[in-house]
Structure formats: structure tokens, C-alpha cells
Design brief:
Oligomer: single chain
Region (Disordered): 194-217
Helix content: 55-70%
Order of helices and strands: HHHHHHHHHHH
Number of helices: 11
Number of domains: 1
Protein name: DNA binding protein
Strand content: under 5%
Length: 217
């Protein structure tokens, strides 16, 4: 599935495999962490109206989800788990209130130690999936052909592309959010990686290669 594909059924098919792809990775606690991130965390945030915020335990669990679904970087989890509760509450309140200004929202969260634009995007996507997609390596590679740059500038470009794609794919019957687009891209990439060994280097399948990243996400 190419990012330029405009057939909603193709994207819907990729998205439909998201849960099974999560399960197929066989990573410790990933299924329960993904359920927390996708289904439990959003209502928890909205219950705190009129000034929603995230707590340190929730942010730590979100970080566990992000690192387990992607690349494991234990120091980031240590940083986040030791953050001051009042600081996290204040930063996340300001971030959520800043939307739809994505740049300001990300900047409010990245004052927290261990929280870069990618982690900030995960927090924002849990709160506003219709605006802010999670900045996963797989979706970044598909949308921008680059999974090494985790800067705010790169995220803004990434978010804009996924917002545009979501609008393009949405119909009267099916509405896609930028977060749906990210999950579809992730699901498709993970599926390709599992198929790659069986396809003997089929040129149509080009899973992104993992690479070392020195920068905190």
C-alpha cells in the first residue's frame, strides 16, 4: 500500500488488521498496553473536563506502550516515571488547551524530561485523534520517506500530510482520522515485515530498515 493510494477500501483493510498485528508481535504486555492507550486513556482524559490533563502513571504507561510498539529505550521510561506530578498536569493542560495549534501543543509537552515530539504526539493523539496522529517510525517512513528526524518541524509536516490523507479518504459512510491513517500505515508496515522473509525480496515490498537513533523521541 503506497501512501499516495486514494482507495478508502485499501486503507480500511489495512486498519482492520491493526489489532491482529499488535498480537502478532508477541511482545510482553503489548496487547494490554495498546488497549490502555487506544480504549482506556482517551475517556480518562475527557473525564477531567473542563481542563483535561494526563497523570504521571498514565504518561509512564503511554511511554511503555510507545516503546513496546516501537523501539525499546528504557532511559526514556525512567525519565518520565520520575517527573513531578504537578509539572506533568500543568504541561498537559496547557498542551490540550493549545489545540488545534499543534506546534504550541507539542512545545508545551516537550518541556518535560524524556518527552520529545514523538512522545508528545502520542499524548496529543490520545486526546485529539482527529487532529494529531502519533509519530511512529513506520508512518513517518511511509509519509515522508524518513524515520530518523523527530524534530517539531518534521512532525508538523507529518501531521499535515496525515490530516490531508484522512480528509481524502473520508466518505459519508466511513470517516478516517489522522490517527486512523497512522494505524493503517503501521499495520501495513508490520504485515510487510512479517511477509518479507517469505517473499524473497519482492521489490513491491520494501519494509523500512531499522536504524540507530541517537536523539530522544
Amino acid at each position: 500500500m503506497d501512501f499516495e493510494c486514494s482507495d478508502p477500501s485499501v486503507w480500511k483493510e489495512a486498519l482492520s488488521h491493526y489489532t491482529s498485528r499488535i498480537q502478532s508481535l508477541n511482545k510482553p504486555n503489548l496487547v494490554s498496553l495498546d488497549d490502555f492507550y487506544c480504549n482506556q486513556l482517551p475517556p480518562l482524559l475527557f473525564q477531567r473536563n473542563p481542563n483535561p490533563y494526563i497523570t504521571v502513571p498514565e504518561l509512564s504507561k503511554l511511554m511503555q506502550w510507545k516503546l513496546t510498539r516501537g523501539k525499546w529505550r528504557p532511559r526514556l521510561l525512567d525519565f518520565v516515571s520520575s517527573l513531578d506530578e504537578s509539572l506533568v498536569k500543568s504541561a498537559s493542560q496547557k498542551a490540550f488547551q493549545s489545540l488545534p495549534d499543534i506546534s504550541k501543543a507539542v512545545s508545551e509537552l516537550t518541556v518535560l524530561k524524556g518527552v520529545g515530539p514523538a512522545t508528545a504526539s502520542a499524548v496529543l493523539a490520545a486526546f485529539a485523534p482527529h487532529i494529531t496522529p502519533f509519530m511512529s517510525d513506520e508512518a513517518l517512513e511511509a509519509a515522508l520517506s524518513n524515520s530518523k528526524d523527530y524534530s517539531l518541524k518534521q512532525y508538523l509536516l507529518f501531521a499535515s500530510k496525515l490530516q490531508t490523507k484522512a480528509k481524502e479518504l473520508s466518505t459519508d459512510v466511513d470517516v478516517f482520522t489522522p490517527s486512523d491513517v497512522e494505524r493503517a500505515l503501521w499495520s501495513f508496515a508490520v504485515g510487510n515485515k512479517s511477509l518479507a522473509p517469505k517473499l524473497n525480496g519482492d521489490p513491491k515490498i520494501n519494509p523500512s530498515k531499522s536504524s540507530k537513533r541517537k536523539r530522544n523521541k
